[in-house]
Amino acid sequence: MSRPYDSMEPKVMDDDMLKAAVGEQGPQEEAGQLAKQEGILFKDVLSLQLDFQNILRIDNLWQFENLKKLQLNNNIIERIEGLTNLIHLVWLDLSFNNIEAIEGLDTLVNLEDLSLSNNRISKMDSLDALVKLQVLSLGNNQISNMMNIIYLRRFPCLRTLSLAGNPVSEAEEYKMFIYAYLPDLVYLDFRRVDEQMREMAKMKHQYSIDELKHREAQMQIKLEEEQAKQEKLEEHKMAFVEYLNGPFLFDSMYSEDVEGNKLSYLPGVRELLEAYPF
User: Fold this and answer.
1) pLDDT of 52-104, one tens digit each?
2) How far apart are CA 101 and CA 130, in angstroms?
3) Which regions form coiled coils (predicted)?
4) Burial of 242 (0-12, 13-18, 19+ CB in 10 A)
5) Shortest CA distance to 46 belongs to which of 14, 86, 75, 6?
6) 0.85 cut: is pTM over it?
7) d(CA 47, CA 66)
8) Tens digits of per-residue pLDDT, 128-184?
9) What is the DSSP string of the chain?
């Protein structure tokens, strides 16, 4: 379950809180003392721990541009936000909060380990940008639809998944379904995937998986075609000749040609225009 609201007043993530956290977690020897005297630059901080702070909202982290590890578990955070600048983040812990939706992660393209366990999340989505994701912890949330598992097929690096404590984990086919549709998974709910069970699951769902792979391949082809089309359009824009590879130029030239349009009413001309459009 998510963390209930504390009797303490919610705290704000201001500069004072961040400076205190950085000072406490930084080196304590002579070099650390010297750094405190001269002032700590947030851009040099690689790891930041802000758990059990009664934080309601993520804020003021834009200066931590080189941060790689961020710990925000056991707070009362309701939304994932304020992380846009943390593009080097590799490890993020937002467990034991009050988060209802996955969002605000679009720029975290280097994230490998994400923990969102013990929140109020009911759907797995908005993770598309996390192409390097290896570990995903979503235990003890409110995920109930087995189709959420299919969404995770788009993460080729995913090796560890935790969904225990969600309604979906109570389904009879839960493990077999995951073994079949996520064939590269190594650990599920803190246990290593049984290879014999994986093969049985693969055989049981073979027909559906083949159909799914076919649809995925078609979607990939369409995606690549669209990307190629957009790249070509960008090239044309850079050369100020966009739309020249289609009928746009001729259509625009003759769209207001009143006299020319009268020709289409002559016998046989309309058929010619349809057969050989500009």
Assistant:
1) 999 999 999 999 999 999 999 999 999 999 999 999 999 999 999 999 999 99
2) 16
3) 209-236
4) middle
5) 86
6) no
7) 9
8) 999 999 999 999 999 999 989 999 999 999 999 999 999 999 998 999 999 999 999
9) -PPPPPSSPPBP--HHHHHHHHHHHS--SHHHHHHHHH---GGG--EEE--SS-B-S--S-TT-TT--EEE--SS---S--S-TT-TT--EEE--SS---S--S-TT-TT--EEE--SS------S-TT-TT--EEE--SS----TTHHHHGGG-TT--EEE-TTSGGGGSTTHHHHHHHH-TT--EETTEEPPHHHHHHHHHHTHHHHHHHHHHHHHHHHHHHHHHHHHHHHHHHHHTT-TTTTSTHHHHHHHTT-HHHHHGGGSTTHHHHHHHS--
What does the block give as tokens for 267?
């016998």
Give me 19's structure tokens: 């400076």
